[in-house]
Amino acid sequence: MFIDIHVHVAMHSDLPWREGGEAPATPEQLLEMHAEVGIEKAVMLPFVTPECNILTQSNEDILMIAQKYPDHFIPFCNIDPRLMRNTPQADLSYAISHYKDLGCRGIGEVTPNLYFDDPRVVNLFDHAEKCEMPLLFHIAPQEGNTYGLIDDLHLPRFEKQVQAHPDLIFLCHSGAWWSEISGDVTQENRNGYPDGPVIEGGRVVELMTKYPTVYGDLSAGSGYNAVSRDPEFGYWFLNEFQDQLCFGTDAFVVSCRDSILRYLADFLNEGLAAGKISQEVFDKIAHKNAARILKP
Amino acid sequence: MYIDIHVHTRNKPGPNRYGTDQSYATPEELIEMYDEVGIAKAVILPGVNPECAHVVQSNESAIEIAESYPGRFVPFCNIDPRMIANSPDADLGYLMEYYRDQGCPGIGEVCANLYFDDPLMQNLFRHAEKTGMLLTFHVATHQGGIYGIVDDLNLPRFQKTVETFPELRFLCHSQTFWSEISGDVTDETRGGYPKGPVIEGGKVPELLRYPNVYGDLSAGSGYNSVSRDPEFGYAFLTEFQDKLCFGTDVCAPKNREDVLIYLKNFLEDALANGKITQDVFDKVAYKNAQRLLGL
Q1: A111 interfacial to chain B (CB closer than 8 Å)
Q2: Model confidence pLDDT, tens digit, residues A133-170
Q3: Does B58 contact A at CB distance below 8 Å?
Q4: A–B CB contacts, 8 A cutoff, strictly below
Q5: Who among B50, B86, B95 is closest to A54 (CB)?
Q6: Record: contact A13-B51, CB cut-off 8 A
Q7: ipTM of the complex
Q8: Which of A15, A179, A231, B287 sees the fewest Cβ atoms within 10 Å?
Q9: One digit per residue, pLDDT tens: chain B, 295 residues?
Q10: What is the pLDDT of residues B14-51, one digit of tens each?
Q11: Are the CB atoms for A235 and A267 separated by under 8 Å?
Q12: A chain contacts of residue B68, beta-carbon cutoff 8 Å
């Protein structure tokens, strides 16, 4: 079985997530897709932040889906750091506690296009840590024309925030995170899906080694690429960080059925069948780590 | 009868508005309040911009409410200028056309805390003009610690925007707009509700002479601008009788004691005392809104 740490879903909208694209998957469509690959539970990440999409969702929309399918969907709330007057003094715990009490198990996907050390973002981390809510985020390589928290090559700003918030669980996601698995990542390829052998010295390995609060969200093409671009390295990585990695898909439209819904599941199943990872490692990544993090 | 050009309501009101003991009024609560005072119809402005809310609302929620109470609500969509790609080249017209087809004749309340001449904002205005949508906005005095589109004293950035987009109809709102009704507004008073006589030379009368600038008289700010100096207020209502719209900015049930009735009472007193004509009253109370909203 799998717990999917990262999905997006909309109750009813025919407006595509992105221009020219498909409309979001409905809960019913996702349930059907999840059944095909053995996903028994999934974390829903509402789109609250404008930079990320066409469609704005509310946390309440996501809670309604969770109420309708309580055995399958786990709600996160999403708290934009500019919420409540666009100030680093905003008492974001007020909103976070409200949604925690309503059953939200974390915050994310955090995608405003602000620097990791912008005082408003630091304020969000402060309150997330205080409220004991894990935080899932997307990294952007620059300001403007993209979404996500901004960092430079090798993620120095993120590391400082990890150090400043030792009790906050970070669920790390996106191309600009996973490309840092290899020591040869460059400014040019950091936001993509670099191919080929993983070179020693990658920041992902370093950050996950140094900080037990840093978790890898293996969803999307970026997470799958990180472990599959160099399969022997990938299996080593899964073994080494077996307590800090979570299975995920980032499925958000029906056409993901043929790609990210199954890419990582297939890779893990094959790794298990070929003896590259143990049943214990498989179980931890597939669902046990998520269950531990998401425990109320 | 009245049309309220400016209201906020939520089916799921969420936690109490921070620092208060109430959350948003539900549509049912709002209709009850409206029935008490003769407001027949209202424009719902969804809270999409994070700066302005403690609970973000979707456009779909505003549309659903309007569909649930036919004839009572007109939904606006709210398009954040950072949407789609956080880029001044984003095709926001795509979104506007989608929501216009869903029955939204306008955009707002635009509260993103960016400058009027930020390329992201200019892109929003460009697409709003192209799609023929109305645009309701809140002005902020500065960036950070506040919500609304940022401008300096005397609104030079807004004025340039008005000139750049002559076909875009702006519904102007907030303290920082209405305090400019008086020529003596200062950096210290512009974000509040200045009292006392209105001094000649205010930017608001000057701006309202642009054919595409309209006044949204909602909230304490709109009410204050016409009531702080009643004789001026009556003359102002009469002069700009084709450019002003009644509004409340009700956000919570407890607003039944203040913004729900303040402006309404002022207009009715003015009519009863012969300070404004029935024609002026009707235009401000609902006819201008009817025309703008295409009702």
Answers
A1: no
A2: 999 999 999 999 999 999 999 999 999 999 999 999 99
A3: yes
A4: 108
A5: B95
A6: no
A7: 0.91
A8: A231
A9: 999 999 999 998 888 888 889 999 999 999 999 999 999 999 999 999 999 888 889 999 999 999 999 999 999 999 999 998 899 999 999 999 999 999 999 999 999 999 999 999 999 999 999 999 999 999 999 999 999 999 999 999 999 999 999 999 999 999 999 999 999 999 999 999 999 999 999 999 999 999 999 999 999 999 999 999 999 999 999 999 999 999 999 999 999 999 999 999 999 999 999 999 999 999 999 999 999 999 9
A10: 888 888 899 999 999 999 999 999 999 999 999 999 99
A11: no
A12: none
Residues 36-95 of A with CB under 8 A from B: 48-51, 53-61, 64, 80, 82-87, 89, 91, 94-95
A19: nearest CB among B54, B59, B91: B91
Overall fold of domain A2-294: TIM Barrel (3.20.20)
What CATH number does the domain containing B252 carry? 3.20.20.140
Of all helices (H) and strands (E), which one includes residue B285?
none
Chain B residues close to A82, C-beta within 8 Å: 50-51, 113
Q: In what order do the strands lie in the sheet with A39-44?
A: A2-7, A39-44, A73-75
Locate B231 and state its tokens.
């004789």
Range of the domain at B59: 2-293
pLDDT in tens, A191-244: 999 999 999 999 999 999 999 999 999 999 999 999 999 999 999 999 999 999
Which of 12-41 (B) contact A at CB < 8 A? Answer: 12, 14-15, 18
Q: Which CB contacts under 8 angstroms, 24+ apart, belong to B262-265? A: B262/B220, B262/B223, B262/B227, B263/B217, B263/B218, B263/B222, B263/B223, B263/B226, B264/B2, B264/B37, B264/B38
Contacts within 8 Å (CB) and 24+ apart, B258-261: B258/B220, B259/B218, B259/B219, B259/B220, B259/B223, B260/B33, B260/B37, B261/B37
